[in-house]
Input
Amino acid sequence: MTATDATATGGAAPATPLLAVHEDAGAQLIDFAGWQMPVRYGSDLAEHEAVRQRAGLFDLSHMAELRVSGGGAAEFLDFALAGRLSAIELWQAKYSLLLAEHGGIIDDLIVYRTSETEYLVVANASNRHAALDALTTRSAGFDAQIVDETEQTGLVAVQGPAALAIVSAIGLESEPLEPLRYYRALPGIFEGEDVLIARTGYTGEDGFELYIAAHAAEDLWRALVLAGETHGLTPCGLAARDTLRLEAGMPLYGHELSLDVLPVQVGLGRVVALKTKGDFVGRAAVEAGPADDAPVLIGLTADGRRAPRAGYPVLDGDRVVGAVTSGALAPTLGHPIAMALVEPGSATSDSLTVDVRGTQLPARHTQLPFYKREA
Amino acid sequence: MSETKYTKDHEWIRTEGDVATVGITDFAQAQLGDVVYVELPGVGRTFAAGESLGEIESTKSVGELIAPAAGEVVEVNDAVAGDPSLVNSGAEGDGWLVKLRFSEQAELLDEAAYRELTA
Output
């Protein structure tokens, strides 16, 4: 029931521990939720392709790490989040949602169980404070402490078919990585520093996310670059990360997910543990369900080269029935793809178009994901 | 060949006789990222100052080609329409977009002023 902001920066803009590395590499930096992060090092398309064919290296140190511990941590997270976190095993990861009382989504999260009484909750950089505030408020009455470790933590991801070979070659002390399953993690040690080695990602490829103390992130990054040389490992920016996750049909907060949608509207009904646990924040609203005419998330594909982009109107015949939430010319697929929130009556319409700056682009509804790697 | 001039909309312009070759600057292509689609105007189209003559789409965003003065389109670069990556590899050369004949004087920046704008 206490929360500590472990940051000592006194409100100064946070910075990734890899900022100097990115600057040396000639990365183009953008402001992302107050962090200067690489949008690209060279070509977005080359970075995207590297992840699909070989491997990409990402700095995700802007993501928020919130440590939840205490005898009541499991019980607290069952109340505070939509999933049943008390049921996950040690070193298991689970995708979950932080819901508002009205059922809207405050953030989507990955939760790792790091001991019987401790979890690591990873939130979006843009929602760091909203997530911390909601968790802190909800912790009243529980034996659970929440510590924001974001700025003390570096997060580096290696994603792509060669990820296992690369991460296995940097001298990590840990159990073997090869048998580690998707959404499982392992504790490891790199040059004397604790590492959380997670088989998770946001690209649609096999890969690892490595959490380490911020001061050791640069050494870890350099070791991965060195080990990745023979595998074509390519540093990747946020632009490639966005097209990769979009092809993989993964939602992004602020685009597909927001306070205005219930999980079921965006295909995340399965994330909410209505049947297996008791009360939790947002339960009544989820049970009541969205309004009959509340929009639903669909996938769209189109021909040609023009991308539907976030905010563009979606029409059914000549009537606007919704809007694109994310869209791009899919680098791997070679045609335009988009996710859109549309009126439920039009979700399977065969006469959908996207208004691309005044031109009606015919679009076909499709199952997500757009891209699935071969098993 | 004449001196290259620039606009505040990140286009470069080189005039020979009464025809101006126009493209987006190297700074602009770097900001856009990989260009994947270019839409160019029809030859013969007339336009007013400030009108959009075409679109340059990258994976992340869309840039517009803004006419710096009124005039007429006399030629477009078909090679760029076929291979939009030319805008990245040769923004201020092979990646030129259109040739225009202006009917009024465009307000242009010299190189020093443009560099200052993008510094």
User: Anything to note?
Assistant: The first strand of chain A starts at residue 2 and ends at 5.
